[in-house]
Amino acid sequence: FIQRARKYGLVISHIYAIIVGLLSYATFTTYMQNLGPEVFYKNVLLAIGAFLVFGILGYFIINDASSIGKYLFVTLIALIIAGLIGMFIDNPIYHTVITVVGLILFLLYTLYDFNRMKRGNFSPREMGFNLFINLLNIIKDVLRLANRFKN
Length: 151
Description:
By secondary structure, the chain is an all-alpha fold. Helix content is 85%, strand content 0%. The longest helix has 34 residues, at 2-35.
């Protein structure tokens, strides 16, 4: 099972990236219509800037961030469960808290991944995929917050 997973992991990660990219197009189009192009692009640049800052912190400033990996994973699982519960709850504060926690989580994952890169503890394909997912989630969370607080 593990050998098959490793064999097909490249294909699965590419398919996942394509699907996420296609679904993100619809999300970004909606946010551009809701926020307007100027606010949309400013928030995307803000998200990219935050991604770069946390990447620089992880690569140049933090010596070893390997100890936070297990906490990040547990938080990710809790966030997924909270998101599933959120489908049945219509409370704007609940969804805002989930968005803020998600934003902080993926910023910390960016720091963690760049630190792994510094220590040479990665495969290039895995790291590229992780950083792509981190950046995409950071952009989506920033846009979600901007859309929530646009008034």
